[in-house]
Structures are given as C-alpha cells and as structure tokens.
Amino acid sequence: MGSELGINTLAKVSLAREIAYDVFLNALENGADPQQECEIQYEKHAKKLSRVDRNFIKEIVYGSLRWYSKIYWILQNTSKRKLEDATPEIRASLICGTYQIFYMDRVPDRAAVNESVEYVRAKSQANAVTFVNGILRQIARKAQYFPKPDKKTHPIDYLSLQFAHPRWMVERWAKFFKFEKLEEMLAANNKQPPINIRINTLKTAASDAHELQATLLREEKVKSDRRPLRCTLSLKSSPSFEEGSLFSKGEFTIQDESSQLIAFMVDPKEGETIVDACAGSGGKLSHLFELSEGKSTLIGIDPNESQIKRGQQTIDRLGHKGINWEQTDFLEWKPATAPHKILLDAPCSGLGILRRHPEGKWHKTADTIFKMQALQRKLIEHALNLLETGGELIYSVCSFEQEETVEQMKWIEKEYGDKLEIVAPAGRLPDYYKRYITSHQLLHIYAGNQDNLDGFASFIVRKK
Known about the structure:
Elements: H1 15-30, H2 34-44, H3 51-66, H4 68-78, H5 88-103, H6 109-122, H7 129-141, H8 155-162, H9 167-174, H10 179-189, E1 195-199, H11 209-220, E2 224-226, E3 232-235, E4 252-254, H12 257-266, E5 273-276, H13 283-291, E6 297-302, H14 305-318, E7 324-327, E8 341-345, H15 360-363, H16 366-386, E9 392-397, H17 406-416, E10 420-423, E11 443-445, E12 456-463
Parallel strand pairs: 5-6, 5-8, 6-7, 8-9
Antiparallel strand pairs: 1-3, 1-4, 2-3, 9-12, 10-12, 11-12
Helix pairs in contact: 1-2, 1-3, 1-5, 3-5, 4-5, 5-6, 5-7, 6-7, 8-9, 12-13
C-alpha cells in the first residue's frame, strides 16, 4: 500500500540497482575503478545476476558517471537544499535515479523513483525518503527548464555543461580544436564505446573471421560486424563470459582496435626478446604472442600483483604458453641480457579513453598530464638504457595530449640527438590505419574520430 507520496512501503531496492548505486558511489567518492568494482560484485552474486542484470548495472554506473555534472546541475536547480550537504548515498540515489529517468527509455519513471527511494532507506537514511522522492518526482515530470549558458557568448561554459565535461578540460581542448570539432569529441566521449573483440588467431585465422561470427550468432545470439582490422569484430551486444562460452574457451579477448594497433607497431619477430614494461592485464602481451606465433621471448613486467594475476588468467585462457612475468617496478628492473625491443605502454592521463573510463573526468586535473609527462620521461630513459644497440623502444599512451605525445618525441630528439632515430611506422601498420600517422611519424588518434576508435598515440625509436 503506497503512501501519499506514491512510495510503495513494501518495496525493496533490487539487487541490480543496489549494486549499481554502490559502485557509482565508490567510483565517484573514493576513486575506485568501476570496472573492477563491478567484477567483484558479479563474482560475489554470480548465481543471482543474469546477463541482463549485468548490462543494466553497467549502463547505470557508466551512464551516471558520463553525465554526472549535467545531472548534478539539473538536480541542484530543482532542489532548494544544497546537494553538497547531503550524504554520498543520497547524492548517488538522486544522480542514478535521474540518469534512468532522462537517459534510459525502457525504465519506467516510477521504478527509477521508487527504487532510488528504497536505496536510501536500505542505507538506514529513512529521514531522506521524502526529500529523494520529492526531487525525483519533479525530475520525472520534466516540466521545468533551466537556462543554459549562451552558446555564442559563453562557449566554454556551454560545452562544459551540455556535454558534462570539467571546464578545465574543455578550455584546454578549445585551444587546439574548432568549436564544431570539439563538440564532436565531447559528444563521442559520452557515447557507449563499441564492444570490439580480438580474435585469437592461433585458434581462428583472421581470414576465417566469418566462421567465428557465425558461431557467436548461433551459440550466443550475438551479432557482429567486420572491421578494417581483420582480426577484429565489433559486437552488437555483450558476449557471454560464463564457463563454456567462446570467451572462456579463449576464442577471443576484448580489446579496442586502436589498442590492437600497438602490437603491430612492435612487429614481433622470431627469436627476439620483447619486454612489455607495463604489462597490466596482458592484452597487448597476448597479442604479441599471437603475432609472433609464440616464437618471440616475451617478458611481462608490472608492480601490481593483482594485475599480473589478471594478465596470467588472460594468457592461460587464450592458451598461450611460455610467457615470463616479473612483479616489479620497471624503473628498478635490470635484465641479464639486453632486450631487442621494449614496449612502453606508459602510465598516462588516459584522456583518450574517457568514454571507457568516464570517472576520469571527475578525478583528473591538468596537473595529471604534467605529472604523467615527467614519469613517462623517466621510463623512456630507463628503457633506452636497457636496450641493445639497434634495439627499439615502442612508446604508446591512451592519450592524445601534446605533452604526452608530440612533446615526448621532440624531447627524445633533443636529448639523444643522433644516438637514436625515429622509425616510420607505415610499414608495420595495416594500410587502412596509415591515415592516422602524422608527418612526424607519430600514430596519433584523437577522440571522436571517423572510425570510432579510442584515443591513442604511439611512436618507435631505434637505438643506433
């Protein structure tokens, strides 16, 4: 029986919504990685969550993070109370509830309102039930209009609000891009990224990708499109990750096209010793194994034990054998024998992949870019010292910022002079992607590009 406010007093927040709100709160308030938080919850409640539930959770979490500042602005204009004085749980219920009302057409407004109310009740904050219910019911009526900054007289403020990006970020990019281009970039950051998979070419040849497409459709009802990169498929929906699925059998792994291009930049050859200096979860390392058909000596380095475990799980799932792992900081690593190549997929600002990590918009600052630039230079210096004569450093970042890309190339040329040479990547990349190579021999991919790729940059230097 509902109260006069329309609240079902016998209702209870669903498990999917409670997980989504909790993950959103933890990501925004505590800087937690939403992907890892989701995976922890999926594992904890594996028997209770369907694939539909998981997709629902992901949509709420990532959508609320993408549009956080715009939703907050709408809520603050609706509420007579300062939202910053509310508890994190109340803010999470309001933001996630508003996201569902505005952006999730298949979710009934009543469900979004009632379950958001029940969330704060479940968090022992029943005194906020009336407040949350009242605000979200006003939002659901969508009757109020709040004037935005003028597009012509205050373009930065307009873009920042309209596309939910921090002002410093919009102001920075406005120095390099025209208004229309910047609109495209910001809009692209707020779209759901494609689900691209890299076919395990040691199990299915790239030329036989159509066979894997047919199997995905037949066994998992997942439609897919071919991509210019022959070993890549773009899925129309999320694949199954359950035991016995094509994913669990190692037929493919999840990886964006631009990230896949980096292994082509490395161009692994038989007999070479190749080091992945920041191996992370092993995506690029496993691709190097496939391109070399297991005939290169591969070493993955990462200081994080959990990352190495995830990387090893990826490698094992794909059926790759003989990859060496070392848990250490690359800056402290000293090999017995100089490697032929070092892939430095360096820590960076990550501003090229905000559509995948929208929480980055709210946790990063302009200082992040300069701190990363300084760290990258230390890593570059160490890598170049370790390489054998004639060896190559392949540098990459999931960023398109000048300080982390063009300026790093210029710094290397100035610092090392004729001791190094820049290697043209055109001979290593598939023809289609050569359009992203600059006159300075830099692979430079901006957000909002015509091929819907993640923002990335990479270059190659050879030690004379």
